[in-house]
């Protein structure tokens, strides 16, 4: 233990009334944000910062009230008692650290992507399930007020059946050393789609098309198409080379269509009460085909959204799912579903865009959603 | 001949000094626009309106100075002398009417799509070529001030090498009885891409993904991906079901990136002087891969565009190509190149998005570009 | 009578069942638009076009079914029977033509501004009132779907009490030979404010500030401030020299605030359910002053507007007010109220911006609203 | 002295090579921002935080490296050596604190407004001038990359002669307890106008119109008009009651017009190469009046702006003006010029909008700009 202000090793288990004791693993880019939000949460207690580079960890720990700093999970678990860990280290290390924590009986929050592959991710999910511990994916975008509102609107049936989802996330972005533009940017869109659809993200197959016009060795421009229930389709466009920035998701429904434009702070969500009208009787596809289609031009509505930090709500959900003993809303399985699509996308890309089947793990792990 | 004010049959051939005598075939939706522009053109003389429904034709002919009206091409050719015809009838009739006119020695302008299939289209191209007549595709969008400016900027090298093209054309649109959303909307994007790229539209293959979530029997949502030279890629998104209207084409280049937003009349084109910087030496892909990439944040520039009607410029080009004996800038072959991609897209769609090869007719008809 | 197709002089009076027989006076810029809309109206019959320049009148009359053309009101009234005239001649001639028509027992519609001065305008209003004839001001903007919706929302109390109105109408505009920017552009804003406020446009005084930085001899940039009921204020900014075009009216209310942006066709009106909250008890100003103020951040709502041509609705209202024997919604008095403000603005401008009182004619002509 | 880590009283004077030792006075809303920027500046050393509420001061001082904290200027000057103070206390205390510091031989930076009245402000300016000390107004907006660019463009003649300036700053804002909307918001616009115009802000008179429709006891909606050189005019619209937020300044020039829209981060400045064309010969106003005016529709250009924090540049300017012994670019006199207009505006408001003369102090203090 590096800090001399930390508590001694305790065997006392957490009880529902006490705040959740959480250690943040990783003091790089994302860890400090997590640490700040655990510190600010009334449900949690920031118990420690863990990083091999303890100087870096101390720099994070200082302004947060000189929380204790450890150089490894072993030392953390040996010296103080925590209930959970939040892992914000490079993706390739998630698997090892998460298993270590789960085996020590700790709940685990993992930065996206859940793991470097779905196979490793599944081991994490199984380890958590077998011990009755929470494994949560840090899909931060799902906890933005916009995504929470969209989930609510869809679940209340305000959009009707989903007809299409189109998501564009393009910007001048750093070409990443280890991942292509799909693995870098699409997890945001995929995790949100998983979050807002009642059935989650479960396409049968995906097709990915990409380009590497600068010869960087990986796709810098990418298009991902996959099926949604009821013959609907989703498409995601990610691009590192666009000097014009777009972050827009259009969700077309039989009743209304929603546009989420994340770059318009005062009106992020617009709901268009416009669309196709069928006569009520014609519920079957055959009937629809046979008859004329008319259009409906209704009002546009933009719900007020609270100005809440997504990360704060994510931390609250982590604590709540632990205390209530229920899967979190972005569970480990949600992380797996995102990995399933990314892996299939990579296979499709290798095969020149051929439709590639998406793994399904639903049967194996019932009840973990 | 229906109108009694028309001139008698004349054998006098057109000479370069006299205006081009043009008959418009079809008095439905598009024909009246063509007729109005031929009437207004100083290079042309609107000689007749032809339509089986002569009442409809008379309605168009009246306000344009009571030009003669005919019920068929046979009657037209039998009674008056024209130099050219402009065909604005349903696509399935283009082939027959164009061949009839070409065989009568007339130059032909054809509304998009050139023909119902590339095979039929090729017969038209060959018929025109063998007689030394002009066959021009009415790719109107290519003659908008925006498209003309983009063509000029690309050809002058202002954008550098093209890295990607992304075109979105979505709106609440009428589900067409005979064609899907690809054939209805994508010809606009495809013809523009053919027009602005120095080498024209010549992908090796395309992949198409579509959805018919309303069960109309045809794709209402569509995504089209294809390769561009130098490992670049193009993508076109067309959609009939979107209540939010987008008509935007992003053209990313190594030097600059251009955004064409057709719904912002005062600033349709924005040129971003931002992008990726490489060291000058590293021209090979291998070198690019090895070295760090940096970004350049430069000015944005929006060229002033004249407020000229595209159709008027198109008519001028038709007359000019005839008088100068050169292929028009949107030649029959340009129409064929668009058909090639559309047919490959339809095949890909049938095969669930499998990449489908695009026919190439370049060898057979050199010099007709 | 110039045309030989006109009917002979008839004494038959118009009855409620027959369409209103209307002659359009003036075949310049605006007259043809009026003529086209009277022609299209089921309530009206376009009986004649009158213009000293009969060639110009014939050009308008031709495509509208060769309606008769006259060179003067005298000839019109001498030769055919009409129920009403619509005057679209230069402002300085409105007074003479309107009086001539009213004395002949015709209802009169007058293009804005009603007259060259409020004194002349009042003579017109009085002449119409004394004969029980309709005098209507062609305040076209009031009949746009946007203005009609705003009037409805305000009258239903959706905005609460009005707190402020801010209207901006700036553009690169032609410097007019005879009027300054206030008289050229502000009538649009003033007539709309008169139309949407339940009490109409009745400020006690106005202050006008203008600039003529190019030395054209008249104000090219103008700002107009005046009081509204309940200590609210209105401000109008008009400008001929701005290359950026803005047409925006913000109407702040105690309950909601409405923004009319006329350059955003798909969302012209936005209603913000945001504002100041007071405790219910504090209805008096003294109480408001004493207590803290809080803010309410609610939804934004954009009502769907029909795509109806304003001029068509204006023509319908003219016919309806005649048939129903009631003042039209933009009556002669509405035109006077606009003139009152413009004249006071001119006086203020001469006095360097000093607040100038606005004439009030309300007492003299009760019941004419 | 409250902190025990501060240095002892030192008599060593600052020399040009050493960083400027600065104490921040006031640990409320703005002081921490100043402190953070002085801390980060390579030119300065943050020597102390001063606040009567030392607990509040310690909270600011802690994360900035535990800089010493003092409860008063007396204690500050008694215990440590500083070169300058930055005053971020309520406006009514600026005068007393600034004089105290100037009398102690310290350079002074003062948050806007410079003082509660121009009379008090002038005493500060005179006190600084007589001692050869720098008095700088913290007109932060002037140091935004946008304002710096606009100043540069105007001074290089890119806009030509200024024809009009229109500034709108409206938002849902807290009704302030002590000042009206003019004093709260207009200083931003006025200080920028003073900064960008070569001659500074020197109108002869201003007219102010305001409204207090909620009965808060002070204007919540305000319009300010004043003259600019060469018959141009400026107008500022400030409003606390508008739920739609606008921060836009339009600067019309004879050559180009610039629009600064501060809410569009990616394109804050647009320069329109559009405007009025005169024939070259007609340079006199009389000639302009006589001849026709034509329009020029040129390109739009949006310069790239660095993403620099304004406050950092302001701090740099404070240090530079001290080291170079020259007035800062937002000198005390700039603060006076803003106060001159605000005081005249208040007088105008009391007189119902009557034009009120603006005080001029230029003669008295030559050389202080």
Automatic annotation (TrEMBL), chains A, B, C, D:
Keyword S-adenosyl-L-methionine among record annotations: no
GO molecular function terms noted in the UniProt entry: nucleotide binding
Pfam families for this protein: GFO_IDH_MocA, GFO_IDH_MocA_C3
SUPFAM superfamilies xrefs: Glyceraldehyde-3-phosphate dehydrogenase-like, C-terminal domain, NAD(P)-binding Rossmann-fold domains
InterPro entries per UniProt: Gfo/Idh/MocA-like_OxRdtase_N, Gfo/Idh/MocA_Oxidoreductases, GFO_IDH_MocA-like_dom, NAD(P)-bd_dom_sf
GFO/IDH/MocA-like oxidoreductase domain span: 148-258
Positions of the Gfo/Idh/MocA-like oxidoreductase N-terminal domain: 20-139
Keyword NAD attached: yes
This protein's UniProt keywords: NAD
PANTHER family: BILIVERDIN REDUCTASE A, GFO_IDH_MOCA-LIKE OXIDOREDUCTASE N-TERMINAL DOMAIN-CONTAINING PROTEIN
Name of the protein in question: Oxidoreductase
Organism: Arthrobacter psychrochitiniphilus
